[in-house]
Specification:
Blueprint lengths: L5 H4 L9 E8 L3 H11 L4 H9 L4 H20 L7 E10 L3 E6 L5 E6 L2 E9 L2 H14 L6 H15 L14 H11 L1
Antiparallel strand pairs: 1-5, 2-5, 3-4
Helix pairs in contact: 3-4
Length: 188
């Protein structure tokens, strides 16, 4: 496993390793899950979700659900902004193996191991330096800011500045119908 496991090391009082979500007893091997988890480790949440959305593996769908749950836990329980989150750690541990047997030739039995795994995703807020670098990159591209609060505040500020200058359109009275019908008859 290449990423840090934060479930054992963070035992200091008052410190928190981030918001987590896990899926237990997933019917796939841990090695298949680790291939997908290696794609999204240390990425911001939006990029990680896009990668998982277009990854053509069954485990990508499961990992995407766990990532969405971790983001929901961070926004609901810790009041963090979803745009400022990144995948701090993600890992897949082996779960219990279901042992089955298949009949083989000459009365023998072949073993079948149906593996399971436990997938854990931990998200945390980016540091201020990382947020500043990401904001500078988006400004260099000319794209609008990715922070939703800033976009909404800018939009509200723009609408309040325009409000006094906007005039309501006047509605004109309909033309007299009798003149319209005579002009139509005269044209025919």
């Amino acid at each position: 496993m290449t990423g840090p496991k934060l479930n054992e090391a963070n035992r200091v009082a008052g410190s928190k390793s981030g918001s987590r979500a896990s899926a237990k007893y997933v019917r796939s091997s841990a090695s298949k899950a680790r291939v997908v988890l290696n794609l999204v480790r240390d990425k911001d949440v939006r990029t990680a979700d896009e990668i998982l959305q277009f990854t053509d593996r069954e485990m990508a769908r499961v990992v995407r659900k766990v990532l969405a749950s971790a983001v929901a836990n961070a926004t609901t329980n810790d009041n963090l902004d979803a745009d400022e989150l990144f995948v701090k750690a993600c890992f897949a541990d082996e779960g219990p193996t279901l042992k089955r047997f298949r009949p083989r030739a000459k009365g023998r039995a072949g073993k079948i191991f149906k593996r399971t795994c436990h997938i854990t995703v931990i998200v945390d807020r980016m540091s201020d330096e990382q947020l500043a670098v990401r904001e500078a990159k988006t400004m260099a591209k000319g794209a609008p800011t990715s922070n939703r609060r800033a976009r909404v505040a800018a939009s509200r500020k723009a609408t309040t500045a325009e409000a006094p200058a906007v005039e309501e359109p006047t509605v004109e009275a309909p033309a007299d119908e009798s003149t319209d019908s005579t002009t139509e008859e005269a044209g025919n």
